[in-house]
Amino acid sequence: MGKSRPQNKKASKSRAKSVLSAGGSVSKQKMNEDPTKLLEQAATQLQTGQPDAALELAQQALNNAPANSPSQLVALNTVGEIYVELGNIDAAKKHFLHAVELDPNGTIPESQGGGAEKFLWLAQLSELGGKDSVQWFEKGVSSLRHTIQQLEQNPGPEEALELVEKKGKMANALCGVAEIYMTDLSWEEDAENRCESLITEALLVAPNAPEVLQTLASIRISQLRTEEAQAALRRSLELWKDLPPEDLSIPDFATRISLSRLLMEVGMELEALEVLERLILEDDQSVEAWYLGGWCLQLLAVKQQAPKDAEEEEGDNTPEARRQASLVASREWLKQSLTLYDLIQYEDERLKEHALELVQEMNKEIGEEMDDEAEEGEDGDWEDEDIEVESDSDHEMADS
């Protein structure tokens, strides 16, 4: 389960309100449809990128469902997830909380709308964070334990696949709690011990999950056990780096962004750059991926290192040549991130400030590009929005 990026809350609320107020356009035939059929149609609409239409159908299913019935529970969770997609977090939480009232311990089977999902969403959507998120994660973990025990009692091909899925979800929830104890609750006296017990259980449940190994690395970094962190990250990367792009075992985009940051933090910049190059091939509009790639190349320049492709094209493998190649490439990646930052109105000011700072430092060392149409304005913003990274230049991205 991934957390959708919240959109403008006011716009989402008004959009949802307009959808719900359009009830008069719904035919009498649809009004009388089975909630199960409506929810199937809603799922199809959501999968095809039409959340507004999905919301109308799911809301109708909820209206038609008998009180305290499985169809009502399924509809509540579905409407909640659609509201997450639309960015209306308050409405999403309202529906998930209603679902909790009907299935307080998550022991109702998922086929009847029960299970852990609502708890895990509430943990991620909590505005309070800290202990509030922890208690929702723990309820989700408890529900998943119950489900896993039932699946283990009835082994079969389908149950085996579901068991792997539930164990992975449980391990991720345990890691979610550990991450809270490394951040919001790091001041707690038993924070480090809680992290150790949580990651130990997560590794027992899903020893080959890339996300779990990343959390292990993050804990080891916080403990200044760098070599152990590096080993965990190598194991995480080895699990999927040679898989084709369409393989479902590959961690999601956000998880791999976090992986690249962790790799950079432990001095594994070449590995981080390989991850980021692959991410750019998947989504060349990611401001964060371009920024991290530029920063990663700048760190390589500090070490007088360069990506292998840059070394081969230059034909000069001296430390200074490697440094120059990385600096040139770094500046291009960072400029691309700044261009996209303005184009899509990205909101991370610290990212922009750091990218500008790095570019300005490199301009002082290697000189500004005379043939570049982009001029840095007085306020430090890039005025040209058409900067592109040339695929045949010295800083060509390595094929993933």
From TrEMBL:
Keywords: TPR repeat. Residues 368-391 have a biased composition (Acidic residues). Gene3D superfamilies: Tetratricopeptide repeat domain (1.25.40.10). It comes from the Eukaryota. The keyword Ion transport does not apply. Residues 1-37, 362-400 are annotated as: Disordered. TPR repeats lie at residues 73-106. SMART domains: TPR (SM00028). GO terms for cellular component: anaphase-promoting complex. GO terms for biological process: cell division. Residues 1-16 have a biased composition (Basic residues). This is TPR domain protein. The lineage of its organism: Eukaryota, Fungi, Dikarya, Ascomycota, Pezizomycotina.
